[in-house]
Design a protein that fits this description.
Length: about 280
């Protein structure tokens, strides 16, 4: 690839990513959430439609369409989305139990759980998951892979994915939280590998949604020192915690290292897997 053409391709990728960021913050945050005060879920859906439209227009200029990301509604792609949801959710369960065991936290069934809350969590989480996948594993990522290879593309977008979580969760200045959120870099590699192997964005969307649904909705932390506060989330299963702020110690290193190890094994499993045609 000629240097001038390479620079042109890089500029297009950067421009598209900036447009995605501006669409999210200006349209989603400032206009829809701020000025119009729409519920965040509705705002996210509108932003997703806008990002999909921008992606479609970008591909249309090249004589392509959204099938480049495997977003066409074929039975194969839909099955990848469903299987991703199941596999992504199942993967998280033993990790939660193991970490709870290491920390000495009991894991108990919540007899007052709400099925509508548990199932509704899928719909509540889906817009955010889709938006993240379109932004970080969508056209910008695929174009970066084409011009610089998978390794460089993963380094770039894993870094951006980590930074986005640091910013969204206000983690700057909190070294413990920043360290924990480094795992999101492995999350990017997991979802990016799923995309490249399956050829459809529905697979990483399913994996990502399954991960978040199980860890944030099916399971929830219940502070034993403030159970009323914990019961605000009527999850299916409660992890009874002590409510203490995590510290840099041997237990923290062990649980963070275990999480990174499990994600790495999951990534390797998907890399070794050969999907059927």
């Amino acid at each position: 690839m000629k240097k001038s053409n390479l620079h042109s391709q890089v500029a297009k990728i950067v421009f598209l990513f900036i447009i995605f960021v501006l669409t999210t913050f200006i349209l989603g945050g400032f206009i829809l959430n701020g000025l119009l005060r729409l519920p965040s879920q509705i705002a996210n859906i509108i932003v997703i439609v806008a990002v999909l439209f921008i992606t479609w227009k970008a591909y249309k200029k090249e004589g392509k369409n959204l099938s480049e990301l495997g977003l066409n509604l074929t039975m194969r792609n839909i099955c990848f989305g469903i299987s991703g949801l199941l596999v992504g959710g199942i993967f998280i369960i033993p990790l939660i139990y193991t970490i709870a065991f290491i920390k000495g936290y009991p894991v108990v069934f919540n007899q007052t759980f709400s099925m509508s809350y548990v199932l509704g969590g899928l719909g509540l989480l889906l817009p955010t998951v889709m938006l993240e996948e379109l932004a970080f594993r969508g056209i910008c990522f695929k174009k970066t892979v084409e011009i610089s290879g998978v390794i460089k593309a993963n380094i770039i977008f894993a870094t951006l994915f980590i930074l986005s979580h640091w910013i969204n969760l206000g983690a700057f200045g909190n070294p413990v939280q920043m360290t924990i959120l480094l795992i999101t870099g492995l999350g990017h590699i997991l979802y990016a590998t799923a995309l490249l192997k399956s050829k459809t964005l529905y697979f990483p969307i399913g994996l990502h949604l399954g991960n978040n649904w199980v860890s944030l909705v099916i399971f929830s932390n219940l502070d034993m020192n403030d159970q009323a506060k914990g019961q605000i989330k009527p999850s299916l299963i409660n992890v009874i915690t002590d409510g203490k702020i995590p510290l840099f110690n041997g237990q923290f290193i062990l649980t963070t290292g275990l999480t990174a190890f499990m994600f790495t094994l999951f990534i390797l499993a998907i890399r070794k897997w050969t999907p059927s045609k």
